[in-house]
Amino acid sequence: MFNCISDCISVRIRDNVKGCRIVQLLWSDTLMRRAFFVLQPFLTDVWKLNFTHAAAIVNIWEGTSLMLPAVFQLLADKYLGYFKVVVISTMSSTLGIVFVTMSLPPVLGMGPCKKYKEECVGDGQRGLLYLGVALTAIGRGGLTVSVPCLHDEQRSEGGQFYLCGLVQKHVSTAENHVVYAVGLVIISLISSWTFRFGFPAIFAAIVTVTFLSGWSAYTKTGPKHKGSLLATLFKAFAPCRNHQESEGSRKESSFIRHITGVSINFIILGIVSALGNTFFVSQANQMERKFLFMTIPLAVFQLPMLIAAAAAPCLCAMCAFLQCANQYCNFCVPRCLRVIPSILGVGVAMVHAILCCVVAAAVVKRKHAMWLVFQFYLVACVDVFFRSSIEAYYHAQAPSRLRDYHDVYTDFVTGVGYFSSVVLVAMVGRNWFGETVGESRLDRYYWLLAVLATLSLVGFWVMAQFCLFRNVKPPTNTDADGVDKESSCCFGG
User: Fold this and answer.
1) For 38-52, 182-196, 258-272, 330-344, which range has the lowest pLDDT when averaged over its residues?
2) Which residues contact 388 (CB under 8 A, 6 or more apart)?
3) Which keywords does this chain's UniProt record carry (predicted)?
């Protein structure tokens, strides 16, 4: 009996060590994203770029990193497996942040020029920065979709490594918020650009070495051919579809077509979210930031966004409670009520987008940066409500094989919004935008986004009647007690 207990303890310790080595990859990614929050002012203050040009670089980086998870999910499922995707993504992300750090003038300055001035930035630095930004986008895209799946694969026989559902969701969220807060404090206290980008680079290198040191201990599974969001999307809209496909495949294709129909209205949410790391940061950088006896660091404006992000588990838990109530009260609650919480959540996200743009337009002429706190909070709420609501809808209504695709879908749609932001700014052109924030009519642009968000809200509500409510189905995949485990809450298992 003593040997049995000893073996169980050793298995638990070994599994926990593997889990920490894998999860820390997300910590490194979180810290890197906090550093990139100040990429916009770095490009405008050091490189002396037009603020719309700098915003385009940041939005293309963000949009690419959000759309790539769908591609990496397809590669992992059909060709590589999640372990290989994690290795490729980790190396790409680490090399990327290292290249970004090397592009700084004090690191690879031109001859004696080591200062943060435009004349000290040569073609070599520009090339390294663009290459580093591209590699970090690839790394982020791969890590987002592959790390949780690789984490779940590390299960020893008789072990309890796999944390499913609510527990896994809260543990991972709490860990990321702690790293978020630590990174916020570090980046806020340090004014040196070299350290702001150098610290995440050093941390990423340490994490990568630690992860690779356990190479032989990881469980490595090959492609599982379970399907991916892109594969299902291609199949749903293929011009020559197989009419002999199974009932499950038809339901999956129907669900994808329905939710794709309303996705056009979600693009505005990505466009508004793109303001947070670009135009809002540029405004704060140009405004008065003295408060009492200190100057507020730019990174502190992530604090309202952290507060909004911390509310995500509460929102998802509320959706879970409503879904459970609808399930257990199925005999007295109309079937359409199962999707009302999630659909209302998307509507709330759009309302927050409208409020964010209205508030931003109203305070654009203010002189002190503290006026921007509320719009930073609102822009974070847009993403929080959208993600929580889509997650709830997927787990309540999607076929069982598609329920884990909600994050990939949300990222992809939001990424399209980031790219659309670049296109929209280019279309408006010099009519509203000058070289700096002070020379631009940002209020007009914000009012335009408020109008577009209002039209999207109306369009979503109309299209939801035909695409989402029509797709409502009763609970399925019940166990012996008749309880639908997978659709009873919005947390994946």
Assistant:
1) 330-344
2) 312, 315, 316, 319, 345, 490
3) Membrane, Transmembrane, Transmembrane helix
- Same domain? For 216 and 239 the reply is no
Domain final residue, candidates 202, 221, 240: 221
Name the 3-class secondary structure at 484: strand
Q: What is the tens place of the pLDDT at every residue in 9-60?
A: 555 566 667 778 888 888 888 888 888 888 999 898 888 889 999 999 999 9
Q: What are phi and psi of 294, to 5 degrees?
A: -140, 160
For residues 209 and 244, state if they share a domain: no
Q: Which residues, in sequence order, are CB contacts of 78 under 8 Å at separation 6+? A: 223, 225, 228, 231
Residue 388 structural domain: 227-493
Cβ-based neighbours of 59, under 8 Å, separated by 6 or more: 274, 277, 278, 418, 419, 421, 422
Whether residues 343 and 436 fall in one domain: yes
The tens digit of pLDDT for each residue in 241-262 reads 555 566 667 777 788 887 888 8
Q: How many domains does the chain have?
A: 2
CATH number of the domain to which 421 belongs: 1.20.1250.20
- pLDDT of residue 491 exceeding 80, the answer is no
Residue 58 domain-assigned (yes or no): yes
**Alpha carbon 223 to chain centroid distance?**
25
Tokens 């070289």 belong to 435
**Distance between CA atoms of 484 and 207, rounded to whole angstroms?**
39
Rounded CA-CA distance 106/382 in Å is 38
Structure tokens at 469: 């409510």
